[in-house]
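Researcher: We plan to redesign the surface later, but first we want a full-length starting point. Tokens attached.
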């Protein structure tokens, strides 16, 4: 496995507190990132892409969505929790794949944007090595992070710097209230796998849990769940992210 470059280790990882001494997932500026999710994991992928993609960056967030049926509606209070004021969000609905890619590329070529996010479902016609290379050149020139959120899509060869698989994960149960027999489910969590990470630890996985007290995600990889008597506890329920509501 390739060693992790110094630039990756020193890049800010927005409010991600690692439980282990190793790099944590990040969507660096000036790079192209692909985020894959399946079925009911749309909210998890969207929270990962928005939360980490616009990390510590001011300016407009350009989100280009496919004109195909979308199962999620953006929720203002949830966006605020992810560090994005809804007033910063510029939402564009594309009628087809070609329009989506063209609008996203024009956005990537505009300096000053905090994030360019393209969201699609299923195969994305026209997105290939050549198209992805255009996005890479634009992102490197403007230093804007470009994220392609691919719902229910197979990974394909591209020039992207990173590729992630994101899914909802079992939460860590909270402490049981006095007199209760059952521990309530914990905060929403993500299972993240680095499918591709140029110069980074591809193949590794992380368990990221929402930190309600401080805001942002907390790396709980390798942290065991414990019951009150010190024994290992069930992993808990898999919860959808409250930041995004079904619409």
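Model: Full-length starting sequence:
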């Amino acid at each position: 496995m390739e060693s992790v470059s110094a630039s990756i280790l020193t890049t800010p990882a927005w409010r991600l507190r690692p439980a282990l001494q190793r790099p944590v997932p990040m969507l660096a500026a000036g790079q192209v990132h692909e985020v894959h999710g399946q079925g009911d994991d749309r909210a998890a992928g969207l929270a990962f892409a928005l939360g980490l993609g616009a990390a510590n960056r001011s300016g407009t967030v350009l989100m280009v969505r496919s004109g195909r049926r979308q199962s999620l509606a953006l929720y203002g209070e949830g966006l605020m929790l992810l560090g994005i004021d809804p007033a910063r969000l510029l939402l564009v609905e594309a009628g087809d794949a070609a329009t989506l890619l063209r609008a996203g590329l024009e956005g990537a070529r505009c300096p000053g944007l905090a994030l360019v996010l393209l969201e699609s479902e299923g195969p994305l016609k026209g997105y290939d090595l050549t198209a992805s290379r255009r996005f890479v050149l634009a992102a490197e020139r403007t230093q804007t992070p470009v994220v392609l959120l691919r719902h229910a899509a197979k990974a394909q060869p591209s020039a992207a710097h990173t590729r992630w698989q994101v899914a909802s994960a079992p939460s860590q149960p909270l402490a049981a209230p006095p007199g209760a027999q059952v521990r309530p489910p914990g905060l929403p969590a993500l299972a993240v796998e680095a499918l591709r990470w140029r110069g980074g630890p591809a193949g590794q996985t992380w368990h990221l849990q929402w930190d309600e007290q401080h805001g942002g995600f907390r790396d709980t990889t390798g942290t065991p769940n414990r019951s009150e008597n010190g024994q290992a506890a069930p992993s808990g329920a898999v919860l959808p992210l409250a930041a995004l509501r079904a619409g």
